[in-house]
Model the fold of this input.
Amino acid sequence: MTKRNILITLIAGLLTISTACQKDKHPAKIPVTDTPVEVLVSIYDSVIFNQVRYILSTQLPSGAFKDNTESNSRITPYFASIACRALLKKPTSENVAAVKKYLIWYMSKLNGTINPNTGRTEVPGSVYDYFAPGETTNGTYDSVDSYAALFLSLMKEFAELSAANKDWAKGYATQLNLIGSALEKCVDNASNNVPTTFGPDDNDGLSIDSYVHGAKYTMDNSEVNEGFKSMLWLQTNVLGGSQTAHFTSLLDGNTNAMESQLWRGTMYNWNDDGSAGATISKWTTFYADATCQLYPGIFGVISPLSPRANLLYSTFNFYYPAWSAGTIYSGAYPWAIVSYAAAIINDKARVDQYINHILSINRGGTQKELWYDAEAAYVILAADKMKNQGNTPVFVPTPYVPPPINTTGNIALNKTATASTSFNDPNLSIDGNLTTRWSLAAATEGEWYMVDLGSVGNVGRVDIKWEGAYATEYALQVSTDNVTFTNVFSTVAGIGGNTSHAFTVVQARYVKILLNKGALPYPMSFWEFEVYHQ
Done:
């Protein structure tokens, strides 16, 4: 063989190797001892390295983690606890020290019985959000239950790393018990009188997000469920075990409540509104309806490899197939947690696609838009899970069969409703339940209520089941684009009760009622707003 042929053969071989490497690997800087060097690493190790660096760059000298790298970023303990759990997946001395510093910071910020900003009663052991650079607070938080639950899970994972860490955690028994108490005070049971903004105080075992809102969310309760499990571990291994039976009871009650109150046979309702009727969550609403379907599997309320978890995840991908290519379906966050859900169920194809999408941005020295420390964390958790799948079976999707199109019944049922003002959820008047209703926020006029049917189709009749505070003057309008609306019915002599308004069949996706004048000095309201093809 000539030197020229040998050279050609070598080049061809190198190209073959390069092409093969590009499928699953790419060059990235990773630390080896004290000096970064350029080596070939898996996409998982590479994205972990990039995102760990990003999270660490958001930590302040106090130990707090900012949501992002902006100088005036919010400091959200909920996000920070998730970020620290991701750091522990790569427990270098640097990462462990950063997490320990955060744990101390969090426990130094535990609230007492009074909110210093408002003077109102506070849940002891809760933690406020803060703002960089001065770590100021206005005395608010997104929730109490999830903050406490995620912190307890983080502390468990930190203590599990070593006997020294476990002994260190024992020195903070007072703080951990206080955080556990804050979590417990969020549970709707006989010991707690919870607010009823979103649902009843019915001692059902679900947690409320806080005493400010009183909402029983599927997402929060999934995190709380894991938090109770972590508290049980801490009871046994750190806190002496005196409340083991107590927290076991809280865990069992919460697990049973999620099944009886939030699971509706085909979907989890995104929150418990006290009704037991048809599912209110809709797959066409990304947040919180569709996203919350993944949380029970992610946080172990149900097995992530169970048929239910598989169907929910498969259905999610039917409605939102482009998430793994980087599409952002919510205007606020990329929702990288979906990649972690995919990793848990071992959907390698989608996880790899999403990680490669993130790496394509990282190679340019930047992060994906709307990127937070929690988003970085979930990518790390997804990559770590893919590296350690063990005997987890490869994901095989459950075929999703869309429900048949409603051609005769109420086509507004369980769609999506909005209103100009609302005292309660507008969807309560399209849920098929005649004991729940929507109402305006006040006795104002010139307001509106609208249903999005999800797609354009024939519309020829609207039935309204008015509450006592009905409208005397109102009009019905339709639109295909939510921009241009056409009147199909109007009256200045409405009589309330159950009314039916038929009109010439038109093409429409949006059906709106203009509430121009009320009959009584009370907010206008109706039990059901129904739309029919004809």
Notes: The longest strand covers residues 498-518. Confidence is low (pLDDT under 50) at residues 1-39. Residues 27 and 121 are 54 Å apart (CA to CA).
